[in-house]
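[step 3/7] fold_predict: job queued, chain A
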Amino acid sequence: MLRNTIETSDGYEYADPMNKLMIALLCGFGLVALAGAGVYFASEAVLRDVSYDAPFDHPIPTDAASIERGRYIARTRGCFGCHGQQLQGMNFDEQWDWPARAIAPNLARYAREHDIAALEAAIRQGISAEGRAMLSMPSFNFARLSDPDLADLIAFLRSAPMIDLDLPSPRLGWSVRWELLTVPNLHVEDWADHVPELTHDHQRKPALARGEYLAMTTCNECHGLDLRGDTLIMGTPDLAIVRAIDRDTFESIIRTGRGLGDRHLGLMSLVAPDRFSEMTEQDVDDLYHFLSTLGTEPAMQDVFWRP
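[step 4/7] structure written:
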């Protein structure tokens, strides 16, 4: 037991300075622990403050054509780039320090272990199977994915071979938890909720509608939720620039990720060969047709991805 005083040879008692120091340290540690617990539980409350859409119940096909369509969706929308070329999962510790440890799970296993409602919520809404908003999964890129395409994607993921890989658990870190309390629109569920609706009619303008669908489920991961540029995270340009290039140049860029004169285009040079090199000629035509129309309307103002 700590004594608050010490007795000297002349019979007087004085306050023990070492006891005062120990008490101050204990109080300090207690306050830090209390603050840490507050940040943890408050950030967890933010992550769990989610709103689900109606449960997904579209039938999952089993035929070869649908599974191949699902593979095409997975390839062109980037599943292999983040989750590994065998969907085995990836550890982004060395590439990314936000969050503290970002882990892309084994998709083949994840698709088998969860029901289709949980899979849809993770893919299109940014809500994990544990009921928490995600931070790293770009669900806003899938928010406008059609029910049949999503069903085909799930069919493919469930049919893919499972490659066992020992992955560590993901970890947010204290800086991210603090940002959740101080930075608006930080997690993916918020972003997915802000993706604009598709506007073109498939009956009246089928090519524009197909191109819009492709762009809004492919390009808005990097170029802003409205495709008109992202200055908040990516620093990517307004895709209205497509109007300034011809169709062959456009195809070369999206298939190779290289600009005029074989110029390196940063992230696009990494993403394009993995995702878009397989894109069909029809999809390239439709995508170019739609993106060439973007500059006819002003870009949205006062949006959080372009502050």
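[step 5/7] annotate
The chain has a mean pLDDT of 90.
The longest strand covers residues 5-7.
exit 0
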